[in-house]
Write a structure and sequence with these properties.
By secondary structure, the chain is mainly alpha-helical. It has one domain. The protein has five helices and two strands, in the order αααββαα. The chain has a two-stranded antiparallel sheet. The longest helix is centred in the N-terminal third of the chain and has 22 residues. The protein is elongated and about 50 Å long. The model has no long low-confidence stretch (mean pLDDT about 90).
């Protein structure tokens, strides 16, 4: 699957506010919760034939719980996500990510208020 990087602006300001207003334990909980919700959202949106694609969507937490990754491991996942010249795209990761991104931002904003 094509790797996409997300760039956030204002990370240094967010880090300063988080250190002064929030407990890192709370941040890790938000990362874990949003990663789990993104996994579930992608699984719900994944097209189902045999269920292999749905089962292949997994999450991984790293950096002491500050980084969450969600990815499908089925070999054919990119073909479904982006389509081919023979079939239309059936995106499941990008729509789930876009929805969860707003929730993650909202959750983090609540911590720094």
């Amino acid at each position: 699957m094509a790797k996409r990087n997300v760039s956030l602006k204002g990370v240094s300001e967010l880090t300063i506010k988080l250190k002064s207003n929030a407990n890192m334990k709370d941040v890790k909980q938000i990362v874990k919760q949003n990663t789990a919700e993104l996994t579930q959202g992608a699984q719900r949106k994944a097209p189902v034939d045999t269920g292999n694609l749905r089962r292949s969507i997994t999450m991984d937490l790293s950096d002491g719980g500050l980084t969450g990754k969600v990815k499908p491991t089925a070999d054919y996942a990119p073909y479904l996500e982006y389509g081919t010249r023979f079939q239309s795209a059936q995106p499941f990761m990008q729509p789930a990510f876009n929805k969860q991104k707003a929730q993650f931002k909202s959750d983090m904003d609540k911590l720094v208020e």
